[in-house]
Specification:
It contains 10 helices and 9 strands. The protein has 293 residues and is an alpha/beta fold. Strand 3 and strand 4 form a beta hairpin. This is DUF429 domain-containing protein.
């Protein structure tokens, strides 16, 4: 194993500066329990804090997993936004577009992107505002367009939602779009797999789906969320980690990050997860992939 540290970030697309939905956990090689990290001088993380952490304060040889979608569906229509002449050709161009259109939006938020007159037609937004292009003509999936990796997640028993869906507790669309602003600002200094090839050394960032870690720890997809220390410790032990050892309640964002950090440590050396059979070079540069799917 070339990685020495494993970081999992539960991310948030909510409006505002600091978010209870952002949690960061870190562990090193061995079996010590992952620990929660906190931003300097604050109880809650901002998205800008996380960007600074990734650019300036990562431990050596860190594998970073972020719970978001690093791209939008492309393979199903040959474009992110079929019919729109300015549709970006690949994931990096998509990240740049999101960040450029949202320059005036504070805290890496994305209201200007999802409310853009041309782009809003592709999203399902609050207030029963489903764009005319949220579903492709003839598409059967009621949850909207899916990436190839999300079909792989579904085969593992999970219930992914389209990144074009911005409504409901299970949606990840806003998290993914705010994350794209962060990914663009990494500016090549932190490789993002598989848009970037896996480097021989140094840190790398991957997309994660925390339910996959929970399932690997012996929980069912419907019981992936953990809200007490006993359940958290049982999941950590199942993943070869020592327990954290707390008592009582814990918020599910922190539990997700802690369990997923332990899962990354356990699975990082599995070559098949870095080279999934369905991941083509075209998918790598457009849709990306979820590590572990």
């Amino acid at each position: 194993m070339r990685f020495r540290h494993f970081m999992a970030i539960d991310w948030s697309g909510a409006l505002g500066h600091r978010h209870k939905g952002i949690a960061v956990a870190l562990c090193a090689t061995g079996d010590a329990a992952p620990q929660l990290l906190h931003p300097p001088g604050h109880a809650r993380w901002s998205r800008e804090d996380v960007l600074d952490l990734l650019l300036e304060r990562l431990p050596p040889e860190t594998m970073v997993g972020m719970d978001l979608g690093i791209s939008l569906p492309f393979a199903d229509a040959g474009a992110f936004f079929p019919g729109w002449p300015q549709s970006p050709p690949d994931a990096r161009a998509l990240w740049a577009l999101v960040d450029r259109l949202c320059t005036a939006d504070p805290h890496l938020s994305v209201p200007s992107f999802v409310d853009d007159p041309a782009l809003s037609a592709y999203f399902r937004r609050h207030g029963a505002r489903e764009g005319a292009l949220f579903h492709l003509p003839g598409a059967a999936h009621r949850r909207g367009r899916m990436r190839v990796t999300e079909a792989a997640q579904a085969r593992a028993g999970c219930k992914p939602y389209s990144n074009f869906n911005l409504v409901g507790a299970a949606q990840v669309g806003k998290s993914s779009l705010t994350g794209m602003r962060l990914l663009h600002r990494l500016a090549g200094r932190l490789p993002v797999w598989p848009v970037d090839p896996l480097p021989e050394s140094g840190p790398v960032l991957v997309e994660i789906y925390t339910a996959l870690a929970a399932v690997a720890a012996g929980r069912s997809p419907g019981r992936a969320k953990m809200t007490d220390h006993a359940s958290l410790d049982a999941a950590l032990v199942a993943l070869g980690s020592r327990p954290l050892g707390g008592t009582g309640a814990i918020d599910d964002h922190s539990a997700d990050a802690l369990v997923t950090a332990a899962w990354l440590r356990r699975t990082a050396e599995r070559e098949n997860l870095w080279f999934p059979a369905e991941l083509t070079p075209e998918l790598a540069r457009t849709e990306g992939w979820t590590f572990g799917a």
